[in-house]
Structure formats: C-alpha cells, structure tokens
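4.2 Preliminary Data

To establish feasibility before requesting continued support, the project team ran the inverse folding procedure on a target of 226 residues. The structure was first converted into the token representation described in Section 3, and no sequence information of any kind was made available to the design step. The complete token record follows.
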C-alpha cells in the first residue's frame, strides 16, 4: 500500500520546522516566567515586564508561523499541489496576530508610551490568542496522527498529551484575559501586579503547550527514521 507521504523529505523538513517552533515557544515561555517572577520581586519591574511581553509575542508569532507551515504541508499532501501562498487557519491567525500585537505593545511600553494600559492590553490580547488557538493545535495533532498512520497506544498517548496541554492553554488564556481586563479598570488597583501575574500565566501556558508539541513531533520524527 502506498503511503500518503510518497515524498518523505519535504514532510520531514516541515515537521522539523514545527518541532523547532514548538521548542522555541517552550523556551520563550520559560523566559517569560523567569522575567515575570523577577519583576514581581521588584527587579526593574517595568522594563522586565515589557521585555517579558515582547518575548511572549515573539514566541507566539514563531509558533503560529510554524503551525501554518505544517498546515500547508498537510494540504499539499492531500491535494498533491503546493499552495501559492502560506495559508492560516483561524487559530493560527490568532496566534500570529496576538504575537505581533504583543511585540508592538511591549516595545511601546518599553520606550515609555503609556506602559501600564499597553501592558494590560498585551496580557488581554495574549490570553485571547491562546484561547482561540487551542482548538487549532488540537485539530492539527489529530490530522497529523491520521496522516502519519498512528494507531493504538501511540495515537492515544499523543492525543492525551496534546489534549491536556491545550485544556491548560484555554484555562491559562481565560485567566490572563480576565487579569488583563481587571488591570485596565482604574478603580481595581494593583495594576502592575495583575499584569505581572498575567504574564506569568501566559508564560506557563507557552511552556506547557510548547513542551507537549515538541515532544509529540520529535516522536513522529523518530518514528519516520525507523
């Protein structure tokens, strides 16, 4: 029986791109968590919070682009023709938009342009981006499992790992979204603390989903070598 991956090398390269994107997201999440904790302890709070927002946005942008590349690779495999442009699903588009917004808002806050409202907006947008992209990540994992002919225990393990991570991603996204809204309300108070905690939550979500995806993709790559 002919495999759906008749030409393995392009698919393998795309898997490597996505696994590196997921690993970058995970490392970015670790950096965001560290920066947010340092800011909470009073170490250059404004500067580190803004830098944490920039790192979060960059990691989310890279992961969104990597998912889009994987999406196009699967479309090429099914249709037999290469799309003329890089296409984004709704979830992937939300990751890219939230990533770009995070970078822009973080840079503006870092140079002193209304830092508190902009950083609160960054947390809010980042939370929304995580919530909207969770479904896309889960769907891509299912499609990839089918295309790579995973069955039985390997498929159940892959589904369980990604499902748990995406559920945590939705929860963290909702928590960050709520914290962002509260930070934008003047009479709530403790705005800097809400922003830092929001970034801590966003970084934790990136770390979880990036680790789950990179582990699953490395498993697929190792399976292809056999």
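Position-by-position output of the design step:
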């Amino acid at each position: 029986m002919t495999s759906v991956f008749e030409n393995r090398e392009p698919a393998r390269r795309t898997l490597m791109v996505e696994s590196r994107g997921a690993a970058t997201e995970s490392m970015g999440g670790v950096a965001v968590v560290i920066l947010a904790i340092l800011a909470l302890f009073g170490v250059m709070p404004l500067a580190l919070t803004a830098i944490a927002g920039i790192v979060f946005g960059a990691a989310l942008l890279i992961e969104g682009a990597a998912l889009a590349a994987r999406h196009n690779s699967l479309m090429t495999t099914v249709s037999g023709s290469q799309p003329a442009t890089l296409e984004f699903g709704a979830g992937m588009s939300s990751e890219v938009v939230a990533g770009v917004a995070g970078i822009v808002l973080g840079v503006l806050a870092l140079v002193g342009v209304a830092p508190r409202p902009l950083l609160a907006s960054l947390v809010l947008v980042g939370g929304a981006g995580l919530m909207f992209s969770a479904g896309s990540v889960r769907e891509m994992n299912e499609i990839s499992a089918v295309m790579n002919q995973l069955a039985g225990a390997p498929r159940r393990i892959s589904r369980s790992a990604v499902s748990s991570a995406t559920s945590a991603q939705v929860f963290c996204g909702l928590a960050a979204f709520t914290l962002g809204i509260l930070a934008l309300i003047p009479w709530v108070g403790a705005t800097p603390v809400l922003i830092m905690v929001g970034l801590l939550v966003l970084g934790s979500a990136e770390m979880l989903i990036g680790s789950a995806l990179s582990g699953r993709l490395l498993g697929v790559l190792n399976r292809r070598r056999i």
